[in-house]
Amino acid sequence: MADTTYQQAHKLGLKEMKVRMAKHEDPYLPSLEETLSHMSSLSEEDLGSVRIDIDQIVGTRSTARREAFSPSFYPLLEDNSEFAAKWSALAKSHLKEGIRDAIVAVEYLNRFYVVEGHKRVSVLRYFGATTVHAEVKRLLPPRSDETEIAVYYEFLDFYKTTHINYIRFSRLGAYPSMLKLLCGDEPTAWDEDRRRGFYADVVRFRKVYAGSALSGSLTQDEALMRYMEIFGAESLSSRSPAELKADLAVIAPELKSVENESEPVLVTDPAEAQPRSIISRIVHPSVKMLKAAFLHDKDPENSYWTYAHEQGRLAAQQALGERVETQSVFNMLEQDFDTVIKELAEKGVDMVFSTTPRLLKNTLSAAAALPNVRFLNCSLNVSHPILRCYYPRMYEAKFLTGVIAGALSEKRNIGYICDYPIYSMPASINAFALGVRMVNPRARVLLEWSTVQGADIDRFFDEYGVTAVSGQDRLIRDERRDKTGVFLWQGKRQVNVASSFWDWGTFYRKILESVLDGSWDEFKSTSDAGQTINYWWGLSSGVVDVHLSDRVPAETARLVRLLRESIMNGSFRPFDGPIHDQRGELRIAEGEILSPHQILVMDWLVENVEGEIPKIEQLTPPAQELVKIQGVLKDDGDKAQ
Asked: Which of 142, 162, 177 is the endpoint of a domain?
C-alpha cells in the first residue's frame, strides 16, 4: 500500500496530466522509440558512467513504461498498485540513505531517456534532486543540414573537450563560441577538478540569473555566455552572488540584444546624431568640458593606422579647443588594459576611443566595469549595446575610384589590392567593380589580398598585363605611400591618379561635438533597449572622400563629381540592381534597395571580379588574429558570421 508521499506525488502527476490534456498535448512520458520510429540508421557510442541533470531526462526509451508517468516523471498508477508500493519503499530508502544505484539511459540530441530506473528518477524529481548518476549509451543520428542535428554535432565537439552535457544551446555557432571562451583557440581536454569547478560556477550563476528581473525568454546558458564574453570566464569563480547580480544589472542591454536578436543600429549620417528639437536639448543638456582618451594597439612611428588616428585626434583637439582635453595611450597590447583604464578613470576621463578591433574585447569589459564612461571601438557589425562602434563607409568612394580606373585603364584587366577580409570589404570591392563596369563593361577586376600567405601581387599583375590598380585607401589626405589609391603602372613607375581617403579628424570632431551639445544621449534609449549603435559614415559626412589628380581627364572628372553629388543626395545608389554574383546568380533585383546592414555583411563578389574572399587559414598569422574578430566569412568560408 502506498504512503502519503506517493499520494502527493500521484496528485501532481494527475494534475499535470489534466493540464496537458486540456491543451491537447500528450499527457504521458515521451517515448524515444516513437521519436525514432522513422529513422533507420543510428550509430551507438558507450559514454560509461555520467552525471546528468534531472532536467535533461525527458522520457523513456520504450513505450512500455510511458503511461506510468506524467511528462515530469510524476507517478500515474493507482495508490493500491504494486508499482505504488515499490515507489513508496524507494522514497523511504532515499530519505534514509539516498539513492546510490545508477540508472541506465540513452542520450539522443543531448536529451536523456531512461532504460532502467524510472522510479528512481521519479522519486528524485519529486524530492527536488538536481542530478543523478547514469550508465549512458549515446545514439548518433546521421549528419544533416537540419538545424537541430547541425547544432548537436557542434555540441559533440564541445563535449569531446569538456565532457559537459548540461550547457544547452539551440542555435548554430553557440557551442564553438562557448568552447573558445572556455579554452581559447587550442582546446585541451578537461580533468574532473575543472569540470566540478565550472559546474559550481554555472549553478551559482543560474541561481542569480533566475532570481533577477532579467530572467525571461533568454535562456540561462545564453545569458551565461554573454556574461563570459564581457567579463571573462574566470570572473565566474571570483564573483560573489551579490557581485554577479550587480554585473547583470549593468549588462541588461547586452542580454536584451541577444534575446531580441537585434541587428546593430547603423547611423549612416551625422545628421542622425544631432538634436532634433529644443525639448531634446533641455532633456539632454550640453557638456561644458570633455576629457577623452584614445587607445591604440601600436605607436605612430611603426603603424600608419595609429598615425592616422593620432592625426585625427590632434585635428579634433585643435578644432574644439579648450572644450575638450584629449590624450593617447600607445602599444596597448603590451600593457595591462585594466590598469590603464583605471588610471584614466582616476584622471576623470569620461570618453574612450579604442582604435582597432584587436582591442574590442578589452574595451567591452571596461565598458561593463565603468558604465558612466562612454566607450567606442573602431570596428563594425558588433552587437554590444554598452559600447558604440565606428568605421568609414568606403564603398561609395570606391565606386568613384572604380569609374576612374575603368576610364583610364589601357587594357581589359584592372587590379584591386585588398588587405583584410572583414566586414564592409566585399562591399568596397563590389562597388569598385561596378564603377569600372559603368564606363568599361568588358573590364575584369583581378582581386588580390596582401595578407594571404605567399602573396606576390606585383608578379601576379605583371603576368596579366595589369596597367591600372586600386591600392589601399589613404588614411589621411596628404599621405604619401606606395600602392595607395588608383595608380597606373608605366614601366616600373607608379603614377597616382586618384585616391579615396579617410578623414578621422572630421569623425572625431563630430562625435566629440555630439557629447558636448548633448545629442549623444538621444540614442541612450536605443542602447538601453538592447540595440547597438554603429557609426558608418560616408561621403555626405566628410569622413571619406575622393581626391583627383590633374591626370584624370576633364570629362572623367566631371562624371565623377556628378556621381559623387548624386550619391551624397541619395539620388544614385551604387548597388541598384540588377546585379549578379560570380556564379551568375541574381543577388540584387531591379528596383530592390539594399539596407545598410545588407551591404555591410556582404560575403559575395559581383560577376566582373576574378578572385575570392580568402578563408582564415590562408592568411598570415597577424591577419588571422583580426579576421577571427571581424571576419566576414566563417573558417569554412561558407557564410557571413
From this structure: 142
Q: Tell me the C-alpha distance between 532 and 381, whole Å.
A: 9
Q: Which helix (H) or strand (E) holds 344?
A: helix 337-346
* pTM above threshold 0.85: no
HSE-CB for 584 with a 13 A CA cutoff: 0
Residues 135 and 156 occupy one common structural domain: no
Statement to judge: residues 120 and 249 lie in one domain? no
**Are residue 186 and residue 250 in the same domain, yes or no?**
yes
Grid coordinates representing 318 are 585643435
Same domain, yes or no: 228 and 371:
no
Counting the structural domains of the chain, the total is 4
Same structural domain, 323 and 387: yes
Instruction: Give the three cell numbers for residue 531.
Output: 540595440
Is 548 a domain residue?
Answer: yes
Q: What angle do CA 235, 239, 242 make, to 5 degrees?
A: 145
What CATH number corresponds to the domain at position 315? 3.40.50.2300
586-619 residue pLDDT tens: 999 999 999 999 999 999 999 999 999 999 999 9
φ, ψ of residue 504 in degrees (nearest 5): -65, -30
57, exposed or middle or buried, with CB in 10 Å at 0-12, 13-18, 19+? buried
521 alpha-carbon distance from chain centroid: 25
In a domain, residue 638? The reply is no
**Is the domain of 354 the same as that of 416?**
no
Distance CA 251, CA 345 (A): 19
Using the 3D structure, point to which of 540, 560, 594 is the last residue of a domain.
540
DSSP-derived pairing of the beta strands 544-548 and 493-502: antiparallel
- DSSP per residue, 13-53: HHHHHHHHHHTT---S--BHHHHTTT----EEEEEEEEEEE
SS3 of 79, please? Answer: coil
| Cell representation of residue 271 | 545628421
Q: Which domain holds residue 69?
A: 1-142
Q: Give the mean pLDDT per block of 10 residues along the chain (641 residues).
A: 86 95 94 83 90 93 91 93 93 91 95 95 94 95 92 95 94 92 89 93 93 79 92 89 91 79 83 56 65 96 91 96 96 94 95 96 92 94 90 96 92 91 95 96 94 88 86 62 74 81 94 90 65 91 92 94 96 95 95 93 96 93 89 56 34
Cα separation of 114 and 546, whole Å? 68
- Is there a single domain that holds both residue 464 and residue 550? yes
